[in-house]
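FORM 7B: Structural annotation worksheet

SECTION A. Query
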Amino acid sequence: MLFYPMISLLKNLVLYESPSSDPFFNLALEHYFMEAWALEKSVLLLYRNAPSVVIGKNQNPWLETSPAFLAQNKINLVRRYSGGGAVYHDPGNLNLSLILPSGLGRKELLFSLLQSILDRAGLKNSEVKGNSLFYKQKKISGSAYYYKKQRALLQCTLLVDANLAMLHESLKAEADLEINSCAVNSLRALVANCRDFDPDLSVSRITGIIKALLPQNNYNTEEARLFLEPAFLSKIQAFREELRSWNWVFGKTPQFECRMNLAHSEKNPKKVSMTIKINCGIIDQISINDDIISKIKNYSGLIHQQNRVFDAGVIKSML
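SECTION B. Predicted structure
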């Protein structure tokens, strides 16, 4: 399916390329287009982020990544407003978001755009599987969707020249935790960069292809500059602060139980464990069998963790 017949459906399309690499700003900008901007407008937003793991609204960060690893490596942890699975962002990963009137919010439109881009880049015959796009059996794009009464958001990543080694490390779950949760789980797949199939491909080249696909009279970059006026930025900043807050990143985690094993030692030769119930990122209950209390290094400190923020590293240090 070609993108050309479908572009005519997008009246008053505005193409905006974000100047920022701050993932909280870019997702706030995306949300602003959904919530606060002219409802009759359609927007194609392009952005790249500093290294980040972006999880879906209904996911568990300890299942999708290791918050401790991300902090140690100065990688942002971001929870987006839309659903779907966890993804890794860095400057080699191009993000595309279509924000449209709800009647146009079909994922076929997004995949039509992506496949038209790849065809022009020389990567023909890409294949849509579920909410992902594959080329030669490797996943190169994942997508997520968010619908309101009058607006729709279709968003996707496109792996062009990302750090795949860091992608794999960043999307490993927290070690030594057995989690029972109703949170949405990511679907794992073998991934590749577009550049793996053509070394001459780059984010700038892909961006140029996108601009060439759009009829010149269908986008207005002058109008896009209005988004940086103070009145707009104040609204975007409010969304950004929400996205950065602990209450959003961790506090929105669906309730879950975490089973943690005590470390093996001469004092603790057998594998024993305890169960922690966490609600909205706060420890509700710690269940420990009486026969293992003496084996815990800091039992008093552990008990005092109840009603506090769950921090796997802190808990592990007390076992």
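SECTION C. Observations
The longest helix spans residues 230-244. The longest strand covers residues 138-147.

SECTION D. Sign-off
Analyst initials: ____
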